[in-house]
Specification:
Mean pLDDT: 86
Strand order of the largest sheet: 2-7-8-9-10
Number of helices: 1
Strand content: 35-45%
Number of strands: 33
Length: 398
């Protein structure tokens, strides 16, 4: 088992180096910017012992391709309800029967895949590290088209009727025709000189697409032609230097009814009105891992791997714990009566949604889990940086 401050320190330096590389304009001179080799971050906590209150069983697992440790890619499974689609950085894309895990097809794209897949059940769309977007037929994996965009894709695309929406790391959101890959429209936000590596995925909500950007803005655009609906600066950058002024919205937004929820790297979790972008409430919880929602709560992975539950209607804190402090957890996923996160050692952790108490812990493999798990019906799907995909199910104890 890999653990300790050394590994976590290297992981964090990879994240911060990625932030500098994303900026493209700042000089890189070793690790001096972050305090030198002897200035290690706090070590990840040791996992506590506890008595499991729910039983989690692995339903099936499969290999996807080569490992992608420390690249912090946005590769995560997607589903149309009956099939699971997943991809590896080495270009391999696979489709599986959702319940039993039978592989239906596998395609070799030849790309360094970095974002996706996304699907509407007819096409499967993915993005690559060199800015290419590829669409495959969902039924057999045959290539339909590929399109070169302006920069790296580090978020899953979104598929809407007739459109594939792709966010690239240069602050651009592009709408491509799902039938032919032709550009329909694009919008672009200004980018700060320094950003954290990663981007939030676009989310289609009704007739608009909503996306967060590295300048701290959350914006909504008409699907038809990209006309801005609203543009809100949620957390204005502040601080004495560019690191302190980081305000990236790297987490994909969540929505329930007429409300949208978003967490920023700079220091806030916000609820905004879907129609206007007007702030409904603000909580001083920062993070870049992501958030999840159910009808009652908003769950947030904090900047130091704290896990929060906020009351959805008011933003008040229901519970918080630090049982996974500094374990580089994923964004959370709401699953039945649990909230689930993965960590840098390949564990999945289940917590009670009402109390935050630990319920169960299982391990996918020894590699980091980067993306939040996916729920389809009664199964939970998770992908590791070691190139493994697995499905888990909660089993009723007798």
């Amino acid at each position: 088992m890999r653990s300790g401050a050394g590994l976590f320190g290297r992981t964090l330096r990879t994240l911060m180096l990625g932030a500098l590389l994303a900026a493209g304009t700042l000089p890189i001179t070793g690790c001096s910017l972050f305090g030198g080799d002897d200035d290690e971050p706090d070590a990840p906590v040791e996992l506590p012992d506890f008595k499991s209150t729910i039983k989690i069983k692995k339903a099936w697992s499969a290999g996807l391709g080569d490992e992608t440790e420390f690249l912090r890619l946005a590769l995560a499974p997607a589903s149309d309800g009956s099939r699971i689609f997943a991809a590896a950085h080495d270009g391999r894309v696979s489709a599986f029967e959702a319940v039993k895990g039978k592989r239906l097809w596998r395609s070799e794209t030849g790309l360094q895949l970095s974002g996706g897949p996304a699907t509407d059940g007819k096409v499967v769309v993915l993005g690559s590290s060199n800015g290419e977007v590829i669409a495959l037929a969902a039924d057999d994996g045959k290539e339909l088209w590929r399109k070169s965009l302006s920069s790296e894709v580090l978020a899953a695309p979104a598929v809407a009727p007739g459109l594939a929406l792709v966010r690239t790391v240069d602050g651009r959101l592009t709408a491509l025709g799902v039938a032919d890959g032709a550009q329909r429209w694009f919008v672009q936000q200004s980018m700060p000189r320094l950003t954290v590596r990663g981007t939030g995925a676009p989310v289609v909500i009704g007739e608009v697409v909503v996306c967060g950007f590295d300048n701290g803005k959350l914006a909504a655009y008409e699907l038809l032609d990209g006309t801005p609906v609203w543009d809100t600066l949620l957390d204005p950058p502040s601080g004495r230097n560019e690191i302190e002024r980081l305000a990236d919205i790297n987490a994909t937004v969540g929505s329930v009814g007429d409300d949208i929820y978003v967490v920023g790297y700079g220091g806030q979790t916000n609820a905004v009105a879907r129609e206007s972008g007007q702030a409904l409430w603000t909580s001083e919880v920062a993070g870049h891992g992501g958030l999840a929602t159910d009808l009652e709560n908003v769950y947030v992975s904090g900047a130091g791997s704290e896990l929060y539950a906020l009351v959805r209607q008011t933003g008040s804190e229901l519970w918080k714990h630090e049982l996974l402090k500094n374990r580089d957890i994923t964004g959370p996923t709401a699953y039945q009566n649990s909230v689930v996160v993965g960590d840098f050692e390949g564990y999945l952790h289940f917590f009670d949604t009402a109390t935050g108490k630990p319920q169960a812990r299982v391990r996918l493999d020894s590699s980091r889990v980067t993306s939040a798990p996916l729920v389809v019906n009664d199964l939970l799907y998770v992908q590791s940086d070691g190139g493994k995909l697995a499905a888990f199910r909660q089993v009723v104890k007798k």
